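REQUEST FORM: STRUCTURE PREDICTION
Request ID: SP-0412
Submitted by: Lab K.M.
Chain count: 1
Length (residues): 512
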Amino acid sequence: MFKYVIKRLLYFIPTFIVISLITFSLGQMAPGDPVELKLKGGMSGNTNGLSEKQTGEKQYLELSEKLGRNLPAFYFSITSAAYPDTLYKIRRAVERDNLSRLIDRYGNWPQISNYFATGKKFELALLNLPIDTIDNTTFTRVQTARESVNNLFSSYDDTLIHQSLRSINEAVNFKSEVKRDSASAPVSYYAMSSVQPLAKELQAAYDKMINEATPNKNYIPAIQFYGLRNQYHRWIFGDLPWVGKNEDASRSCYGFLRGDFGKSYQDGRKVSSIIKESMSLTLIINFFEFLLIYLIAIPMGVSLAVKKGTTYDRIVTSVNFILYSLPTFWIATLMIIFFTNGHYAEWMNIFPDHGIGKTGEEFTFMERLTDRAYHLALPMFCMLLGAFAFVSRMMRGSMLSVLRQDYIRTAFAKGLTPNKVIWKHAFRNSLIPIVTMFASFLPAMISGAVIIEYIFTIPAMGRVSYESVVSRNYPVLFTILMCSAILTMAGNLIADILYGFVDPRISLTKKS
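STATUS: Completed
RESULT:
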């Protein structure tokens, strides 16, 4: 047994690595920029001035470094010869993705980077135009040029790029009947003419990127190594004190294996504190739910199997089938309608329809306990119905298959009492499916019941998971996913161990 447990624990290591890689990959491929999400929607590239642009960029870079987004994604990357080893240094995800698409299309990174840098230089020149030189005549032109150059950083299609470049040229090429050397020429004319060379340089950089394309480089494989200082290593193990010179500025989480899961994108709270608060409720609900299910449904399933074909068996089995078929959300809706608002009768206003009751420290333990039980009565009832019917039907079927075995008939033939045959010989061997279902108990403790918790506004794991998906709060969501995977592995191990205790014929080790 001990060797088997050690062997299974060793299997957990590669399984955990695979799960963490899948989870991390989902985080990398998930839509949206985590930095912009944490900045409450992020900063638009279309700002109104140089100071605002610089402030926004500074906030973005600081938060990007704090979240570790300034690091490469993994220990290495398998790309092509067209890709540089510094593409991860482009902080904004939309710009980095756009450059990747340009590389896939043209393959000439020097020309692509020159095109990108020229666009940034032109954008900075537009933002740096003195306000006193921009009148009503050119304000619209400046705005059009800013929007167009900003579109270039997210456009890889030739048609869209041509449209943006054409809009830029039309905006900066000031059309006026006043000659440039005339004393009556507006100041705005000279302001716009100062950025015309950069517009031409941007057009030339784009033409050079097109004309000197080397797409064949994309077919030459290349491996780029980045070492331990990468996002995946930082997420799993945390920052290494001997790696890097600026870890104090970038250190915001210390690794999943160290118990620090980062901070929420929504409110900046530690994910560990959010999990701790919501998990306590989920543990309470699931503990009493599974306790009641096993204490009631299992004996009922045994009795149904023993009394197979009787009126009691037909009635209870039919009721269980109906209960198992009813949608949980529909039951919860009915409970709220009939037992929380007194719409049909005042006496039916029995239970609260949301929340968990008293939570402040000013209340005693017994006050909080009774009020919480009062608030959780309906949600637990809704979750119990379907699970109760399922377990009892499963126990009935398993018990019936055991009662048909030859050794059970032999036990009856020897004159053993029915209770002794059923509970000593048949019951133990019929618990295999129940033990298998028990393996889902641990992950269910953290996953929660999403629908019920959302309907009754219970701040437990199910609701937290749902809100994390809706708001793209990836640190919370992926922490729940990783914890659920670990508990699933632990639940399967416990179930395998319980198999040996339930049925001695099941051996966990090879016999010589």
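NOTES: DSSP finds 22 helices and two strands in the chain.
Reviewed by: T.R.
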